[in-house]
Every structure is written in C-alpha cells, then in structure tokens.
Design a protein that fits this description.
The chain is mainly alpha-helical. It contains 16 helices and 4 strands. It has helices at about 10-20, 30, 60, 90-105, 115-125, 155-165, 175-195, 210-235, 240-245, 245-270, 270-275, 280-290, 305-315, 315-340, 350-365, 375-390; strands at about 45-50, 55-60, 80, 85-90. Strands 2-1-4-3 form a 4-stranded mixed sheet. Helix 6 crosses helix 8. The protein is flat, with a radius of gyration of 29 Å. The two termini are about 35 Å apart.
Length: about 400
C-alpha cells in the first residue's frame, strides 16, 4: 500500500473523474496520464522519508514529471544509505499533497497548512501548477466526486488573513510584533503567578495594600490580552469543531478561566465564611487557581521545536503506554513484596503504597534514599530490582 494524503479508493475516484474531464484522452494533462503506475518489480519501489515518516511510491510514478525534484536525478543528493531511502526534512502534511499530485496529476492543497508554507514546499519540490478555479483544497473524507468551487467571499478572505496573522508571525511585521507581545504577556503572567506565592511580596496581592491596585490592573491587562487573542482565534478558526480539537486552544481557555471564576466567586461569597475557609466558592477558587499553571504551556505555541517533540511523543504513544504499564506492574509487584518483607521491622514500609513508592524510585534508578530496606532479604530483593532496572534502561 502507498502512503499518501488520500486513501487508494479515493485515488481511483480521482482518476475516474480526471479521465472524464480529459475526455478519456490518455495524453491529456501535458501528455501525462493520471492513473497511478503499478510497480512491476521491487526495484521500481521508491522509499521516501519525510521528517521521520516513511512513504512508498514508485520511480515510474515520480518520473512522469522529470522537471520536478523527485522526478529528476537531483533527488539522489538526498539519498541516505543508512535509511535506505531519500530523506527530506520538510513538512509532512504538504508532502502528502505533493505525493498525491504525482499520483493523480492534480493538486489538492491541505487545509491545515498556511498558504505561504505550502508554496515554499511546492517551490522546494519544483511543483509548478497553473492557477485555476478548481485548484482548491479538498479535505479528507469529503466527496471527491463533487466539483471543486472557489467562492470565498470577503468575510472568508478576511477570516483567513486574520487567522494567518495570529498563527504565523512570519506573515508580516505586525504579526511578529503581536507574537512578541504575546510572549511578553506570558512572561508577565508567570512572574505574577510566582510572586503571589513569595512570602516577601505576597501581601502586595491582598486588597488594601498600596501596590494591590497596580498589580491587579496589570493582571487584568494580561487577561484582557489573552481573552482578546482567544476570541479572535475562535471567530477566525477554520471550523468550530476543529477549534475544540486543538490542544493549545484548550490550554488557553484553562489559563484564563481561573480569573473569571475568581471574579464570580468573589462577587457572591460571604467575607466571614471566606475567612473561615468554609464557603463553597472558596474551595472552587482554590481549585481553579491551580489551572493558572497552564499558562506556562502557552510558550509551546511559539516554539516549533517543542511542537515537533510533542508530535514525536504522540507518534510513540503506544510504546509509552506499554512502558507505563510495565512500570505499574513491576512497581505494584515489588512494592507489595517489599511490604511483606520489611513492614514488621521497618516502619518506612508501613503500607503497600510506601513500598510502591520505593519500587518506582528504584526502578527509575533515581534512588532518593528516603526509604531503604533494612532486612537482609529486603536488601537482596532491592539489589535484584536495581540490577534489573539498571540493565533495562538505555545507557547514555
């Protein structure tokens, strides 16, 4: 099976539509057929690695367009013998659309990628297409038999430009300035969060202090900027459902939620009950304040390297889940065993949970030293666990 931005049956449907549009002429589209070439031998298979993801197509499919990078001999400059494939450190979403172009002869732009990024990728792979009305993006899952229509109005065009302004700091100097302001406000918000817990200055955050109004006003300014940025992105986001699927949008909502909850709670709370810490709104307020820590993760939006790390972790979620499951099994097993061996003579192994804590610290080779076995049998088991853990983790 070939990996691309579309399923194989969708490619067949595209081929049927293309043949119908070309009047069944196999020489249409510049003398290039639109059917996907079928490999006759394994030597015709072409392995392409794009930022760690493997794609498989055929040399005959790529050679239909000899003026492009993949269709010419210039791609040999990117051959990596160790990987036994051509390696390109490029955008994978764009490459799936580019690979679809080689397979179908038609261009389908990805909706999840900005135009300037897609144009840069297309220029890199030397894909030149004439502008036409039907040259629009078709999202996966939509009917490919329906004719593509380009009818963006002024409002849709404006939404697209504003969304690009908020998401891509490279599109203009004003966008760069906006993202710099966002970073400064994030730093200010985190600074206020840390200062509020400092014993030397935390009194300044209480009402009645001389600096309270200034600090409260600064906090309001920060929240107002975050709220404005979030509302504009909500209005201009391509698809309401897609907005809620984006993790960073959820983090942004959680980062400003404590401020508004605290305002509502303080408006309806009883001052005497608050002092006694008995009012329900006081408990809600303390819980919501925990979510202010989420503001730290707003930095991730401005770092492509961090986003890449998150994507890599996401692709390895099965392996990570397996690792966590094994850690859980061994921790409970050895923690329970150490409890029954040590609990009569060692009070630090008073419960199985304390034994599990020792097992986790030992298996991860951290070794805090706060809980250690004292009996000779416990030391033997501890040595076996430590030896097993040291040999299991990869060496640096």
């Amino acid at each position: 099976m070939f990996k691309s931005g579309y399923r194989q049956r969708d490619i067949i449907r595209i081929n049927k539509r293309n043949n119908a549009e070309d009047g069944g002429n196999p020489n249409a589209n510049g003398g290039k057929g639109t059917a996907v070439p079928i490999p006759t031998t394994s030597a015709d298979l072409c392995h392409i690695n794009v930022s760690g993801k493997q794609y498989i197509t055929t040399h005959s499919c790529l050679q239909q367009y000899p003026l492009t990078l993949l269709g010419s001999n210039d791609k040999e400059l990117f051959w990596i013998p160790e990987l036994k494939s051509y390696y390109f450190n490029r955008n994978r979403d764009c490459f799936e659309s580019i690979l679809t172009f080689y397979q179908t002869g038609r261009e389908f732009r990805p909706l999840s990628v900005d135009d300037d990024i897609y144009e840069a990728e297309r220029k890199f792979f030397r894909i030149e297409m004439k502008k036409r009305a039907a040259d629009t993006a078709i999202p996966l899952g939509d009917s490919l038999d329906a004719p593509a229509i380009c009818c963006e109005g002024d409002w849709k065009s404006t939404k697209k430009q504003v969304h690009k302004f908020l998401m891509d700091p490279r599109c203009s100097n004003w966008a760069t300035a906006w993202h710099i302001m966002d970073i400064l406000f994030i730093c200010t918000s985190i600074t206020l969060l840390v200062m509020e817990t400092d014993h030397n200055v935390k009194d300044a955050f209480k009402e009645g202090h001389a600096a309270y109004n200034y600090l409260f006003g600064l906090n309001v300014l920060v929240i107002a900027f975050f709220t404005t940025d979030l509302l504009i992105r909500f209005v201009t986001w391509p698809g309401l459902l897609n907005f809620w699927k984006n993790l960073f949008n959820i983090l942004d909502i959680l980062s400003i939620l404590p401020f508004y909850v605290s305002l509502i709670a303080e408006a309806f709370e009883d001052p005497t009950a608050v002092q006694q810490q008995e009012h329900k709104s006081y408990v809600v307020l303390r819980v919501c304040r925990i979510f202010r820590i989420v503001r730290v993760f707003k930095f991730i939006r401005h770092s492509q390297d961090l986003i890449m790390i998150i994507k890599v972790v996401g692709h390895a979620k099965k392996e990570l889940c397996l690792l966590i499951l094994l850690l859980f099994i061994f921790s409970v097993s050895f923690g329970s065993l150490m409890y029954y061996i040590e609990h009569k003579e060692n009070p630090k192994f008073g419960t199985i949970m304390e034994g599990c804590w020792w097992a986790i610290v030992t298996i991860t080779t951290i070794g805090y030293g706060d809980v250690v076995p004292q009996t000779w049998l416990g030391k033997v088991v501890g040595s076996l666990v430590l030896t097993m853990a040291s040999s299991s983790w990869p060496s640096q």
